[in-house]
Amino acid sequence: MSLDAQNMRKVLQALAPGTRLREGLERIQRGHTGALIVLGYDDEIEQLCSGGFELDVELSPARLRELAKMDGAVIISSDHRRIRRANVQLIPDSSIPTTESGMRHRTAERTSRGTGIPVISLSASMRVITVYVGGLRKTLVEPEVLLSRANLALDTLERYSQRLDEDLGTLTVLEHRDAATLREVTTVLQRMEMIRRIHSEISSYLEELGTEGRLLALQLDDLVSGAAQERNLVLCDYVHPRSALHRAQDELANLDGEALVRLDAIAQAIGHPTVDASDLDQVLKTRGLRALTMVPRLQWAIIEKLGERWQTLTQLREASSDELQEIEGVGPYRAQLIHDSLVRQAEASSPESVGW
Ligand SMILES: Nc1ncnc2c1ncn2[C@@H]1O[C@H](COP(=O)(O)OP(=O)(O)OP(=O)(O)O)[C@@H](O)[C@H]1O
Predict the structure, then answer these.
(1) 13 C-alpha to ligand 1 centroid (Å)
(2) What is the DSSP letter of 239?
């Protein structure tokens, strides 16, 4: 994410419903006036200021509203806590390109493009709040609209999560039968990546929603708790080579929408390139790290060492107690626990238990 995009996210959080800044903007909107507000005061901004008066008072919604009644811009400190200047004429470089038409918006865009400092323009005629950060521009959306978009995304997330649970269950069963193919692995990773993207979309709505999004945040937490860990475990089990975990995570995250629907693109991202569709039916052996996390109270450090010593889940399951005890941190009790847990998992995945 670019620096401007990161700053935009921060500004949207600072302007979320419930914050002093947002309350001030809402008062200005209700009063049918406009405003030009610079969210930062440094030497560069000072150079662009002409006239007005200096002050150094705590930011409050009422003060912001009163000062916005005057002509010109209001300058807020970089930490958004204090009002530093008001009634200021801003004189940004007129050669900076702008796509806006009204003077207020043109000034806001040029000031932010020239300095990188966020600037808010509240249009008196349109009653629209626009945020400029560097070369980026965003119009604030009403909380009700954001909430309905977020709820829609949450419904989709719920449906995907249910399908993922089913697919992950199938993968687990097939892993214990040494019959999981590249198709099942990529299908699971595809769903996980889609869920990650919807999650991040909802998170950005939540940032903008501030206090209005509390309930939604709880529902989201409930739906995706442990999802990132599970995703990394599937990757750890299958990524090739073993050391390419981070590269694979990045490649999956960078797949465009068109590539994400193709299982061969997912396979490529995790280091299993395919030549034709039948390659997706090749059996892949899991390293068994995800299965090991189901062993009660087994620390990750030990799981990693077991994964280094044994290459596949089958080999792990067949390891003797003495062999398991060669791993630092594994005594007779833990060796038994590991063995019993893996055997139980395999039994639970047998055709007799599963019914297929
Ligand atoms: N360079 C500037 N510095 C400070 N304030 C400005 C500047 N340009 C415009 N403004 C403020 O914006 C107000 C409205 O200006 P103008 O009508 O030209 O802009 P606009 O974009 O059409 O605004 P709106 O959409 O609110 O009608 C001015 O009265 C002034 O308070």
Answers:
(1) 25
(2) -
What pLDDT was estimated at residue 125?
86
Task: Give the per-residue pLDDT at 254.
Answer: 97
Tell how far the Cα of 122 is from the centroid of ligand 1, in angstroms. 9
Residues of the chain predicted below pLDDT 50: none
Closest CA to 75 of 112, 38, 44, 29: 38
Tell me the chain's radius of gyration from C-alpha atoms.
28
CB atoms within 10 A of CB 21: 19
Tally of CA atoms within 13 A in the half-sphere of 40 that contains its CB: 20
Ligand 1 centroid–CA 265 distance in Å is 50
Does ligand 1 come within 6 angstroms of the Cβ of 36? yes
Helix, coil or strand: residue 273: coil
Q: What percent of the chain shows pLDDT beyond 70?
A: 100
Please name the residue that has the structure tokens 């981070």.
246
Measured between its terminal Cα atoms, the distance across the chain in Å is 45
Tens digits of residue pLDDT in 219-274 = 999 999 999 999 999 999 999 999 999 999 999 999 999 999 999 999 999 999 99
Q: What is the dihedral of CA 260, 139, 157, 168, to 10 degrees?
A: 40
Long-range residue pairs from 337-340, CB within 8 A, at least 24 positions apart, any chain: 337/295, 337/296, 337/298, 338/292, 338/295, 338/298, 338/306
Task: Give, using CA atoms, the residue closest to atom 10 of ligand 1.
Answer: 104
C-alpha span between 16 and 317 (Å, rounded): 52
The CA distance from 271 to 292, in Å, is: 23
ipTM reported for the complex, 2 dp: 0.95
